[in-house]
Amino acid sequence: MSKIAFIGGGNMSSCIFDGIKRAHKDADDIYVSGPHLEKLAKFADKKAKITTSNVEAAKESDIIFLGVKPQMLTSVLQELKDNGIDFSAKILVSMAAGFKIASIRRLTAAPYIVRIMPSTPAKIGLGITGIYFENGIDDKNKKLISSLLEPLGMLCRLNSEEGINAIGALAGSAPAFLYRFFEAVEHECIRYGFSQSDARKIVEQLGLGTSSMVIHNHETPISALREAVTSKGGTTYEGLQQMTAFKFEEMIEEVFKACMKKTHLFEEMF
Ligand SMILES: NC(=O)C1=CN([C@@H]2O[C@H](COP(=O)(O)OP(=O)(O)OC[C@H]3O[C@@H](n4cnc5c(N)ncnc54)[C@H](OP(=O)(O)O)[C@@H]3O)[C@@H](O)[C@H]2O)C=CC1
Ligand SMILES: O=C(O)[C@@H]1CCC=N1
């Protein structure tokens, strides 16, 4: 097994780390680095080597997952470069939104860089992870990196970094938008007299049942599933009319446009 490091042990690194541990029982000496050792204890409990030194973690590893926020990545890469890390035989796997391969290369001169765009449902093996390989990565390494990410759920191979940007919005950010919808429904349940605990259960079953209907009726357009709920002259129709009045589709378009705009702004900044 190649030696693996995570620079930054936050939410996303933790999802990927857990996936690797689930699928690769022999992955024992994974390094995780971050500024606060106490926050890395959860990794140590799962046999990772934890350290406050990004340099130590990078030096010891063949595959380095970059798990810090885009705003931190420049200084982290600069630190590794300034401390003599030789990237020539290492693979850098960056999950940072809006941070291009060209920018990582400018800072590190690393020949092998992979962009990935995971999502938090990866925590339970149900995420969507975008992946973009440059031409320089050979098939053996493509297979290796893919095998580390497959336990996270669906792996979506993309042909460009703009594809990574798009999947970042459509699959990386989108869980937050769906959670916002669930939060709003939970709030309405409470407004109509349900207890907090019942409201939560209703939202859980609503999400599970509706997603399962989409999955179990794979050949059926989603619009047809919606129409099956919408009795002629009935109550659902009135609710949908409100969604139309409030320009629901236009709002969703603007939501994704805003994500992309910020991603492109990041690309200019870094
Ligand atoms: N969350 C998501 O759904 C997604 C996130 N991403 C990308 O993943 C990356 C990480 O995001 P996320 O996990 O959510 O963020 P988190 O804030 O959870 O994690 C960032 C981690 O970086 C650590 N850190 C901060 N400074 C340094 C440093 N100098 N050296 C090493 N580690 C450092 C932080 O440690 P400490 O807390 O101790 O300061 C923290 O553990 C981002 O680039 C983001 O764009 C991509 C797709 C989806
Ligand atoms: O909010 C963010 O910047 C990251 C990228 C996609 C999801 N979360």
Automatic annotation (TrEMBL):
Statement: the UniProt record of this protein carries the keyword Transferase: no
Function: Catalyzes the reduction of 1-pyrroline-5-carboxylate (PCA) to L-proline.
Protein name in UniProt: Pyrroline-5-carboxylate reductase
GO BP, one annotated term: L-proline biosynthetic process
UniProt keyword Endoplasmic reticulum, yes or no: no
Catalysed reactions, semicolon-separated: L-proline + NAD(+) = (S)-1-pyrroline-5-carboxylate + NADH + 2 H(+); L-proline + NADP(+) = (S)-1-pyrroline-5-carboxylate + NADPH + 2 H(+)
NCBIfam families: proC
Residues reported in the UniProt entry to bind NADP(+): 7-12
GO cellular component: cytoplasm
Sequence similarity: Belongs to the pyrroline-5-carboxylate reductase family.
Annotated gene: proC
Superkingdom of origin organism: Bacteria
Subcellular location: Cytoplasm
Gene Ontology terms for molecular function: pyrroline-5-carboxylate reductase activity
